[in-house]
Amino acid sequence: MIPGRSIFAATLLLFTAQADARERIRIVGSSAVLGFAQPVAEQFARHWNNPAPALEVTGTGAGFELFCAGVGFEHPDIVAAARPMSDTERAACAQRGVDAITEIEFGRDAMVLVHAGSKPGISFTRAQLFGALAAEIAAQGKLTRNTAERWSDVDPALPATEILVMAPEPNTSAAIAFQELVLGEGCRAHPLIDGLDDVERERVCRSLRRDDHVINAAKREDEVVAWLENNPNSYAVVNYTTYKDFADRTAANPIDAIEPSEETIGNNRYPLVTGAYVYVKNRHAAQIPGLQEFLFELTSERALAPDGYLIEQGLVSLDDRGRNRARDKALKLGL
After folding, report:
1. What is the tens place of the pLDDT at every residue in 124-160?
2. Residue 175: its pLDDT value, please?
């Protein structure tokens, strides 16, 4: 028997043996992306006469681990992710028979550096942010622990105010995105880094200082905003949705001279754009009641159009081509 057919046959037997095991769609993953899945679940239950999916906040990385553990009713059907699946995660999926996966990007989000109040923000470059926030920096021809106390220590053009930043909690999808988009890109401007081997460069360019100047994010969005208000000249890294939700109490700082907006995020000009993805097990599409209908709702124009209900929730809309691509993937899943 052809190997692919043997896996498919085993999958059918597994689903048949557990035919009554589960009626609800199970979705795991990023809290930020599941925040957009929640209103879709409500609309799905209302319009498609199905029970609302079970949503489990695990974070993107742990969500991929659960998703890739196997095929069958005991495993999640969908993982909601704030970043694309890595090659390592895809290989782990394949080793456990999860080799037929559909990726659907349904919108965009972004990281925003905010401060309290309404005053216009300072425009930071990613090189400046790396110099202020990295655990190690280049000084006098060698790597040394970052001891910068004030922004002006990093660049005389910046204010002589204390460096105080609330950064994403470690080991979250936001932290990974911050490492890649801020630290990793900012690191490129430091010549000494070029002399390091690949392993050491990866370590240095992704290591965030953890001291009195850089602290972990609070659990709740309102706590982040309250902390900003209680700490003058402080900054926090939040997602675009949070920034919009608290636009009356916070203001954004441009990054590399680009302001975050629906336009600059939608066309990828803003440097700190992240995605909103779902990954779906193709073999579950025909076996889990309502799974494909849920994806129809997720990719519908009433959800994703510029005036759709997810855009009202803070998701940044894809262009017409991107929305059509997402919808086509949902339509083809069951074929």
Report:
1. 999 999 999 999 987 777 888 999 999 999 999 999 9
2. 85
For 45, the token pair is 């239950």
**Pair (125, 224) in one structural domain:** yes
Domain with 244 in it: what CATH number?
A: 3.40.190.10
Task: Identify the domain containing residue 288 by its residue range.
Answer: 3-109+274-332
Our CA dihedral for 285, 291, 297, 298, rounded to 10 degrees, sits at -80
Two tokens, residue 39: 């209103």
Closest CA to 304 of 293, 315, 292: 315
CA angle 125, 130, 132 (to 5 degrees): 95
Hey, is 161 helix, strand or coil?
coil
Cα torsion for 202, 166, 137, 182, to the nearest 10°?
50
Rounded distance between C-alpha atoms, residue 184 and residue 281, angstroms: 32
| Three-class DSSP category at 245 | helix
Q: What angle do CA 289, 25, 49 make, to 5 degrees?
A: 55
CB of 265 within 8 A of CB of 110? Answer: yes
Question: Which residue is associated with the tokens 């085993």?
Answer: 10
The verdict on 114 and 76 lying in the same domain is: no
Find where tokens 């597994």 sit: 14
Q: Is 252 helix (H, G, I), strand (E, B) or coil?
A: strand
Helix (H) or strand (E) holding 78: strand 78-81
Quote the CA–CA distance of 259 and 261 in Å, as a whole number.
6
